Amino acid sequence: MEGISFYGTEFLKVMDSSIDNDDEYNWLRVITRDLKRTVHPVRHLLLINFLTGDIAEFFSAKVYKYNLFGKGPWPCLNKVAEHYRMGVVNNLKITDDYKTRLPVGTFSCNCGFVYSRKGPDKESSDRYRVGRIKKFGVVWENKLKVYLKENKYSLRELARLMNCDPKTILKFDFILGTNMFLNNSRYIKDKDSAAEPGKLSDYKNCILANIESNTAAARTEITKMCKKEYIFIYRKDKKWLYEKFPIKIKRINHHAFVDWNKRDNELLFIVKNKYEELMNSYEPKRITKSSIGRDVGILTLLEKNIDKLPNTEKYLKEIIETVEEFQIRRCKKIIRNKIDKSEPIRIWEIQRIAGIRSEAFEKMKLLILEYTDMETGGDYKRLFI
Is 135 helix (H, G, I), strand (E, B) or coil? Predict the structure, then answer.
């Protein structure tokens, strides 16, 4: 190692700065790699002297900045904007990808269009590459609204004009309230639009439950408890919020009595409805107290006051699933779907679609075979193990 031969082992030992090559945390590696760790000033001087031999020269040396995504301003890649591909973007934020640790650049234009891509850029053409569109912006939305109202483009034509996925067109058709593709077969499958009414109702139930269960809480305290729900309802039904949160009333009666029996029955009704909804959903979801409580906005209530809700607690214990029970239910649903579609049932394929590890699947394999045998009426020709 050059540093050791430069100073000599005896000198480094006297300076209490010996370097152990086998230690990945020796001070030389730490000082050059980990900015968060503290290293004695003497060791900094040793390194500077080794690199330049002159402290003044070291600190006056010109620092070259490496531009991971080239020099700004960068192009806006909003296809419908007048400044498309022009260097008008001055806002660049660089973060690390949590998996690969590669740099990720997020480019934000004044037109509201925000996109990102992994770097560093290797070719000049990378400058015009989009990895992910994070926000389309008001210019893009206004242009889409114009196209939709013209009512002369198909879904795929619009997707090509707006440079996005057809599902994105369906989503914004609903958000913008134009509803030009309301009769499209895929329209109702849009998760955001299909879930709006149910989500609004669930969030209102969450607000009401927290108001009645925290009678001494002020409006601001209730808002903090249900921040996500409050913001969503504020955007969708502000009038309802003002009715439930009278602006002039700052505090609720400290001595108000909570009828926990009534509250128990109300929550039991909500939980039962949510359970039926989850069991009938297309994509299976494991039934847990957290999944139900979080979806209907009463998780805090179920965690902190479950001892006051005996009926709800009893029902939850009856319906919650272990991981294995959920995996079995998911396998059964896959089998039923294949039977309905007259498709062959292959055990290995069931395991793959359900995403179950081989060790765990072996434990339930016999049960899956018995269920398949029962559902097919013993028709082994349909069963390929």
Answer: strand
Ranges of each domain in the chain: 2-60, 74-135, 140-187, 194-319, 323-384
Give the relative orientation of helices 191-213 and 227-236 as an angle to the nearest 10 degrees: 120
Pairing of strands 132-135, 345-346: unpaired
The packing angle between helices 347-354 and 358-375, to 10°, is: 120
Q: CA 327 to CA 79: how far, in whole Å? A: 45
CA atoms of 36 and 212, how far apart (whole Å): 48
- Average pLDDT rounded to a whole number, residues 112-141: 92
Which pair of tokens denotes residue 118? 């992994």
| Global confidence as pTM | 0.39
Q: Taking a C-beta distance cutoff of 8 angstroms, is the pair 3, 50 a contact?
A: yes
- Write the DSSP string, 301-341: HHHHSGGG-HHHHHHHHHH---HHHHHHHHHHHHHHHHHHT
For the packed helices 323-340 and 358-375, what is the interaxial angle rounded to 10 degrees?
40
- Tell me the pLDDT tens digit for each residue of 242-252: 777 644 444 44
Average pLDDT of every residue of the chain: 82
Q: Please give the average per-residue pLDDT across 61-72, as a whole number.
A: 74
3-state secondary structure of 38: coil
- Whole-angstrom distance, CA of residue 109 vs CA of residue 88: 7
H or E segment and range at residue 264:
helix 260-280
Residue 63 has what pLDDT? 56
d(CA 263, CA 373): 45
212 contacts 232 by C-beta, under 8 angstroms: no
What number of CA atoms fall less than 13 Å from residue 4's CA on the CB side? 9
- Please state, in angstroms and as integers, the Cα–Cα distance from residue 61 to each residue in 56, 58, 64, 215, following that order: 9, 6, 9, 66
CA-to-CA separations, 142 to 80, 85, 133, 139, 171, in angstroms, rounded? 10, 19, 17, 5, 14
